[in-house]
Write a structure and sequence with these properties.
CATH architecture of the largest domain: Alpha-Beta Barrel
CATH class of the largest domain: Alpha Beta
Oligomer: single chain
Number of domains: 3
Structural class: alpha/beta
Distance between the termini: 28 Å
Shape: globular
CATH topology of the largest domain: TIM Barrel
């Protein structure tokens, strides 16, 4: 069973309270299952009035040719090659400039999104045929909504292209993770159909929805576009974790032979960061805002000079594109799956650090996670330490790489410490790996001291016991998420069984629910009863 709740308070009139609660309940149902919404003054009424007004004016705007298409350049980090993304804009005679986030969302709730998409496709085709030199050798990406991402509609798009004498190889379609995962089987079939015709497929806004590179194996796509919410933090003092997350996404995407585009690049610092990380392409106001076709010629010349100047400033520097073996790839996937880099320091880990220090009588205890070239401190008891250090300087690197314990009773006597900022002044080290259920070492639990000291096997076993406790805490969150997904699946199955539909239709829906839960692309149903056909 599942339900939604609408709440209303603040009025003495009971009928008004009930009416407002009903409005909030409608909003909760539209938001999804098990949602709660609270009626806030008369904002709800105004919200629906605004939506109805926008929808009505959008119908008029489509007929009055008020919509237009602009193009934002996408620049290759490697050679400066430029492609475009087509974006729709609307200046209403009544409402003025209306945000695409507003009117596209409203259009998706009705069949208007089909008309908006048809307008964009036709307008792009006309622009490409009217200015062939401008678009020669350059692909144009078009955003496609969940509502129209179906083979019948996309066949109509092919017909429009053919009528303008254009080929699928000149186009890309951008779809979101949510679009693909709503109906994976339909998504696979549509992607395969479009790829067979010659189109390129990109995942837009990657990282804000399912954020899993594993499911991308199901789809024959060409690349991903990292969401601007990650990119915008790369030049901020508090953006170190976003940097690590982007680095992991890029490294693993390369392993799957996917091209990577960074969206929303607005500063040179952000550009330098994503270039070092190995992104193939950038898009954002740092290079160009979206432009009408008439302004693209002048912009292209400026972009070429801009990119050349940036490359000249980078001459002699080696880009840090990480090459990963299979084990390291799977280890990084485990870190992304556990979402351990997303979360801040937590008391449950600090409590373990304190207990380790007290039990083993150690001045310093560290719980850390190691990415490709950084060691991130999840918890520290004892001396104050930076939130991260370069992995190459740390002894924990050796523990994770070998997946074995490491005890150095006299660090200065056994290790080359000259020029190493981490080992200078360190006398003792003992560390054990943090190992997932699948056998991947994602980090370490270690204790240190400024002076050398002995450390016996009993101490190592104690450290191993605490490490298992740390991993139990880390994986607890994943188990909770898995439990929630399982509960949602059961609710969906109950809903299917309650439908007044034929058995084959129910079975088809059950298969879809199970595929989404388990992450598979196909299911097969069979019966052991003789003479019964499914």
């Amino acid at each position: 069973m599942s339900g939604c709740i609408g709440l209303s308070t603040g009025y003495e009139d009971a009928d008004r309270v009930i009416m407002n609660a009903s409005t909030a309940l409608l909003e909760a149902r539209q938001a999804g299952k098990q949602m709660i919404r609270i009626y806030e003054k008369d904002d709800y009424v105004q919200h629906y009035i605004d939506e109805m007004t926008i929808e009505t004016e959008l119908v008029k705007g489509l007929k009055a040719n008020e919509l237009r298409v602009v193009y934002q350049p996408r620049v290759s980090c490697h050679d400066g090659t430029i492609h475009f993304e087509a974006l729709v804009r609307w200046h209403s005679a009544l409402l003025g400039n209306v945000s695409p986030e507003s009117f596209v969302t409203i259009a998706e709730k009705s069949l208007l999104i089909e008309d908006v998409t048809a307008f964009v496709v036709d307008r792009v085709c006309r622009d490409m045929t009217e200015a062939p030199a401008l678009f020669e050798g350059r692909r144009v990406a078009i955003n496609v909504s969940l509502v129209v991402f179906r083979q019948p509609y996309m066949r109509n798009v092919l017909t429009v292209l053919a009528s303008h004498g254009l080929s699928p190889e000149q186009f890309e379609f951008e779809i979101t993770e949510h679009t693909l995962m709503q109906e994976p089987l339909v998504g696979i079939q549509t992607v395969d159909y479009l790829k067979e015709k010659g189109f390129r497929i990109l995942i837009d806004d990657f990282g804000v929805s399912y954020s899993s590179l594993n499911y991308l194996k199901l789809f024959d796509i060409n690349g991903i576009k990292i969401d601007r919410s990650f990119i915008s933090q790369l030049d901020q003092d508090n953006g170190l974790k976003e940097y690590e997350i982007v680095k992991l996404i890029v490294s693993l995407a390369k392993k799957l032979n996917l091209e990577v585009t960074a969206e929303g690049v607005e500063t040179e610092a952000q550009y330098r960061a994503i270039e070092r990380l190995g992104c193939d392409e950038v898009q954002g106001y740092f290079f160009s805002r979206p432009l009408p076709p008439a302004d693209l010629h002048a912009a292209l010349n400026a972009l070429e000079h801009h990119h050349a100047a940036l490359r000249h400033g980078l001459s002699g520097r080696q880009q840090a594109i990480t090459s990963l073996d299979e084990n390291e790839t799977e280890r990084l996937k485990a870190i992304l799956r556990l979402e351990i880099l997303h979360s801040p320091r937590e008391e449950r880990y600090d409590r373990i650090s304190r207990l380790v220090a007290q039990t083993l009588d150690m001045p310093t205890t560290l719980i850390s996670i190691l990415t490709t070239d950084q060691q991130w401190i999840k918890s520290c008891h004892g001396e104050k330490i930076a939130p991260y250090v370069e992995r190459k300087w740390t002894l924990c690197d050796r523990v994770v790489t070998s997946r074995t314990n490491l005890v150095l009773e006299d660090v200065q006597a056994t290790e080359p410490t000259s020029g190493n900022p981490v080992l200078e002044g360190l006398g003792f080290y003992a560390g054990v790996p943090l190992v997932t259920r699948s056998g991947h070492a994602i980090g370490t639990l270690c204790v240190t001291d400024e002076t050398p000291r002995p450390f016996d096997e009993e101490g190592v076993r104690t450290l191993e016991d605490f490490a298992r406790w740390v991993m139990a805490e880390i994986e607890l969150s994943e188990q909770v998420r898995a439990g929630m997904r399982r509960q949602q699946t059961l609710e969906s199955l109950y809903e299917v069984t309650a439908l007044h539909a034929s058995f084959p239709e129910k079975l088809k829906r059950i298969q879809t629910v199970l595929r989404e839960w388990m992450g598979y692309s196909h299911t097969i149903a069979f019966s052991t009863e003789s003479g019964y056909k499914i």
